[in-house]
Amino acid sequence: MATAAVERSAEPLAPIDVSRPELYAEDRWQEPFRRLRSEAPIQYVPDSAFGPYWSVSTYKPIVFIEALPRIFSSSWEYGGIAIPGIVDAPMENEVRMPMFIAMDPPHHTAQRRTIAPSFGPSEVAAMKAEIQQRTAEVLDSLPVGEAFDWVERVSIELTTGMLARLFDFPWEERHKLTYWSDMGGDVERMTTPEGHAERNAALTEMGEAFAALWAQKAAHPGKDLISVMLQSEAMSHMSPQEFVGNLILLIVGGNDTTRNSMSGFVYGLSQFPEERARLEADPALIPGAVQELIRWQTPLSHMRRTVLEDTEVDGVAMKKGDKVVMWYVSANRDESVFKDADRIIIDRENARRHLSFGYGIHRCVGARVAELQLCTLLEEMGKRRLRANPVAEPERVPACFVHGYKKLMVELSHY
């Protein structure tokens, strides 16, 4: 492998490691990716905190890779769907947890089919009234003209409440879901044995809480996700590791992505006030604007695959066992697909082509719920003629996986 790595690194552009957390903490990832898209859209990075990897930064090769799961594996056995994880063997204290997003067909297909109906059109439509009510309650509890943290008071509150509803999780303990989500998606914690141990402790606590809920639902099933799993052929006999793995997937997928899009909407529109004014003047623009805001924010920066056989992508030779990182955050700014890609354009014609929800067989199963939550938030703010104005630069998540906000101080005003 060492000889192959030398061969791979013989490129005109020196390797740019875009996995470095400071790029995201300081919001300066845009220029490195712009250069990669222009000069080395598929580049081998021989050294990083996560080991060597292929960096794929443009739209078309990402779609190509996503469409070939038989060559580019998502399997947990090789390290899964995020940048941590050595292909050959787990790190000390690393526990590899099966989850259906980190599986290849046919196992992925069976488990996804179990979960997908809970996020179908009729099921999501039935959530609308409750989401409206919860959003209205949260917005009506906020002070006008007084600074507060939008992430804590709005983004976390709304997404955690939605998760608690989907799982029928005890309402008074719902904020544990936020903590477990943060631990589950923290790739920086997965670079050391000590970090893995801390993460394992949190996820063990989560597993115990949900095991109790599983036992409760076995006796008294409902329509929640735990009951759906219990009653399915594909998921009723999961191992403890697989159970916890799927919980991580559903919690991180349902929490971090929507939560950071809700925060990104406030910060993003503050950077483009003319677009914000257009949206405030015409509520009919909201559905398209939501797609554009999800594109612009890209709440999960990347997904990862492992090469199962020697192959070639756009003339670049990849070896069996190589780690491939698909940078959605860069593809969503690919100027060959999205004109003026760094700008928010609320009526962008092709905003729905964004890759924030992935592509192909692993496209986010809960995308409709995320879209509904975001549309509802914009609608309810519009009804109240509320505008959230950032009063300081946000504190951002210092990591290359979850692309989001730890804190965003705002003041509300009426327009």
Structure description:
Helix 6 (121-140) runs antiparallel to helix 7 (150-167), helix 11 packs across helix 13 and helix 13 (286-297) packs across helix 15. The chain has one domain (2-414): Cytochrome p450, CATH 1.10.630.10. With 415 residues, it is an alpha+beta fold. Mean pLDDT is 89; it is low at 1-6. The chain has a 5-stranded mixed sheet with strand order 1-2-8-5-3. The chain has 15 helices and 12 strands. It is globular and about 55 Å long. The N and C termini lie far apart (60 Å).
Helix content: 40-55%
Strand content: 5-15%
Order of helices and strands: HHHEEHEHHEHHHHHHHEEEEHHEEEE
Secondary-structure-derived class = alpha+beta
Q: Please give the CATH architecture.
A: Orthogonal Bundle
CATH class: Mainly Alpha
Question: Could you list the spans in which at least 5 consecutive residues all have pLDDT below 50?
Answer: 1-6
User: Spatial order of the strands in the main sheet?
Assistant: 1-2-8-5-3
Protein name: Cytochrome P450
Family: Belongs to the cytochrome P450 family.
InterPro entries: Cyt_P450 (IPR001128), Cyt_P450_B (IPR002397), Cyt_P450_CS (IPR017972), Cyt_P450_sf (IPR036396)
Keywords: Heme, Iron, Metal-binding, Monooxygenase, Oxidoreductase
